[in-house]
Design brief:
The chain has six helices and no strands. By secondary structure, it is an all-alpha fold. The longest helix has 30 residues.
Amino acid sequence: MKIFRTFEEIIDYAIDKEMTEIEFYSDLSEKMDRKNVRRLFHNIALEKTARMLRLEKMKDLKVEFNPEDIQDMKIAGSLENVDHRNSDLSYQQALILAMKKEKIKFKFYMDMSECAINEECKQTFLSLANEEARQKLKFEIEYDEFVLVEN
């Protein structure tokens, strides 16, 4: 269970998760045999880097949150369950893990948008959630085209 007390704690938490995912997708990119899969994971890592920089800029926003709304988001456990490292991940396992990561981050940003009192912050979190949803879709398309077709 993760308890947030301030907006800065939320942003620091999100930045930390993005950094972990940058490493995860960069590592996967190097381990995959197929060029298109390496490129997919590499591009997602680049997108995550841009998102992390965007989160850094959010620290400058004048933001208000209702502390009762954000204290227990019940997300930390699920994020930690997904963040394991396995050097022997198959292509299929890597895609499934990636889809799960993106789904959890989507929910995190949606929850944050619902807690935001400030409209600029709300819209920023909604935008971040949409980016996570697009990344999940990329993995779903890859899975559909190359894993399901091969099986």
